[in-house]
């Protein structure tokens, strides 16, 4: 959603030999260019065609007019001492990119069916105690 391609890069800090560590880099362009949507970032979604139901439901909710992602972010960021944190074009880019994600999921569902694409992570697991409490039928 933020179009932040630099989060995919990392370096290994090895100054101290085996005591090195992974170093994630942020090149200070956290929300990328508002006018550019990096479609390649959708490759894992388009190739695997799998998404959790709770994630899909949240994305769909944020696409609804009364819960639009840009509006939710705008309101949330008003409390930040550095407000305005994002410009209006960046906020609108979030809505546009959300639609791209939902379109990619839609293509997956059209190709493979909802049961294959949408992983049901909403089911409540049964505890062993609940199984013991049920009378035998």
From TrEMBL:
Cofactors: Mn(2+)
Predominant location: Golgi
Residues the entry annotates as binding ATP: 11, 26
One cellular component term from this protein's GO annotations in UniProt: Golgi apparatus
Domain FAM20 C-terminal per the UniProt entry, residue ranges: 2-117
PANTHER family: DENTIN MATRIX PROTEIN 4 PROTEIN FAM20, PSEUDOKINASE FAM20A
Name assigned to this protein: FA20A Pseudokinase
Record lineage: Eukaryota, Metazoa, Chordata, Craniata, Vertebrata
